[in-house]
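ZP: hey, is the glutamic acid complex queued? I don't see it on the tracker
AM: it wasn't, my bad. submitting now with these inputs:
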Amino acid sequence: MNAYIQRVLEETREKNANEPEFLQTVEEVLTSLEPVVDRHPEYEKMALLERMVEPERVIEFRVVWEDDTGKVNVNRGYRVQFNSAIGPYKGGLRFHPSVNLSMMKFLGFEQTFKNSLTSLPIGGGKGGSDFNPRGRSDAEIMHFCQAFMTELYRHIGPDVDVPAGDLGVGGKEIGYLFGQYKRIRNAYENGVLTGKGLSYGGSFVRPEATGFGAVYYVAEVFRHEGDNFAGKTFALSGFGNVCWGAVTKITELGGKVVTISGPDGYVYDPEGITTKEKIDYLLEMRNSRRDRVQDYAEKFGVEFYPGEKPWGRPVDVVMPCATQNEVNLEDARKIVEAGVRYYIEVSNMPTTNEALKFLLGQEGMIVAPSKAVNAGGVSVSALEMSQNSMRYNWTPKEVDKKLKDIMCNIHDASAKAAEEYGFGYNLVAGANIAGFLKVAQAMIEQGLV
Ligand code: GLU
């Protein structure tokens, strides 16, 4: 191991001992940068890696709001402004009880590389709260969003930091957040948030973008392998927005999704989630805020496996779309035993480092990393920012075409970087290297900041 990387890893472990997810992503990324750092001794002189693993700014705040029963609730809000070398901070807001500083920092760090890969001018950031939307009414969601924005507004802006959705934050929440921002600022700065509704500055294809983008990426992998979607089976996890977009596009291209999952377990539908009724039902489940997939099994009379994950089903393609660390070493072994050929990460860091290493070591298996595969969402967010600046909207067709081109570029740039630095067709190392190089270059040119 390169001595400089080794030292930065040790220092990072020491400084962030209580942040396991953050350390996990730093280890994953830095270890694939070895040949790059070997070629660039100037990085060490400029403490480039030390600067990259230190967020530019971390904001933590109190959020106070009243629920429908009149009870006063206190949550913790976060915004981690990780890196602004190539553009304003950009990244989603996550509302989930598991949100903590470690998670925000891991997501902000990943976002920096992901956003760089898109080739669009956006830096990396992430935010959210430990607020739990499960079972909350619309009024409660609105009151929480207003309270959250009452502090967040002073830290963001169209040229400063542009939040968007993530787990627990969809179009509805973005609407409430934007309404409050506009009220406080007394200005119609709709470039301050992305994922907005079409009636007030949203972009066509933004709701579908992460799922569609992931499938466009898979199409590039298939092209590389001389393969295609026809008749292929897919095991997905999750049932939210990203999963819905992916199921829609996979079905359109002739593939068949046979599993989805939730915190309660997973569903196996041997006929596939291929009809409009079934695909629309995913949206209904999400809108109900019940956070369970057993409802799908009951509605369509298929098997539900309580407390289990869908890994181990014999399918052609596995796409984890739920959350971080949903595939550990044991799951990865099951995936390999089931004869899966394509392992395509979609949710952020769904694979533990151990499991990822194991999968990358399997002959004939193709592994693709989330920071590349799910970058379609933030890419269309950046296109939404462009449209807001121009005060003009592209058609759905135009946005979809740009999304496709961006995903194709991400795949090609990753494959090329991996090849150039001696990794062969390793899309994981390639994404880290390609994402890193642009940020590194910008940081060096901007001096010691
Ligand atoms: N939360 C999404 C992501 O992780 C979208 C971020 C955005 O659109 O800014 O990339």
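AM: back. The CA atoms of residues 234 and 257 lie 5 Å apart.
ZP: great, adding it to the tracker
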